[in-house]
Amino acid sequence: MLQQLTVRTSAGECLIDITGEVERAVRAANVAEGTALLYVPHTTCGITIQENADPGVQHDMIMVLRRIYPRKDPAYRHIEDNSASHLQASTMGFSHFVFVSGGRLVLGRWQAIYLAEFDGPRTRTVLVKVLRD
Ligand code: ZN
After folding, report:
1. pLDDT digits (tens, 9 = 90+) for 66-83
2. Confidence (pLDDT) at 12
3. What sections of 39-82 are H helices per DSSP?
4. Where are the domains of the chain?
5. How confident is the model at residue 58 (pLDDT cuts 50, 70, 90)?
């Protein structure tokens, strides 16, 4: 069963913790042991796993991605004028997997799953498929 999560992002660039929504999808799949596959069908947002304790980590990730990929560059050719958003999203990647054990996501103590928005705010989709062992 392919599940679809809807995530409303709140800013042009932000990391949204979707761990709770993914946990709910895992419970809905009723899989005790397996693998959760996560995929975002977008080109200007990605998905990542990062620390959930200090919000400074999220700030620093966005800050450094801004430095690497400037908003404006006369060499950009993309007609939509959001090349930085595409580059940032590709850097994060569009898919992840997380093991499932005991019906729960297997994440490290400080880990959370984030939708990484780079061209918001807008409504995004996260697809979740939980494979049984
Ligand atoms: Zn574009």
Report:
1. 999 999 999 999 999 999
2. 97
3. 55-68
4. 2-132
5. very high
What's the token pair of residue 132?
A: 């049984």
Ion ligand 1, residues whose Cβ is below 5 A away:
80, 82
The per-residue pLDDT for 84 is 98
Is 2-132 assigned to CATH 2.60.120.460?
A: yes
Tokens at residue 75, please? 């060499």
- Per the document, the length of the chain is 133
Q: Which distant-in-sequence residues (6+ apart) come within 8 Å of 67 by Cβ? A: none
For residue 71, report the distance from its CA to the centre of ligand 1, in Å.
Answer: 12
CB distance 120 to 11 below 8 Å: yes
Give the Å distance between the CA of 86 and the centre of ligand 1: 6
Give residues with Cβ within 8 angstroms of 109, minimum separation 6.
Answer: none
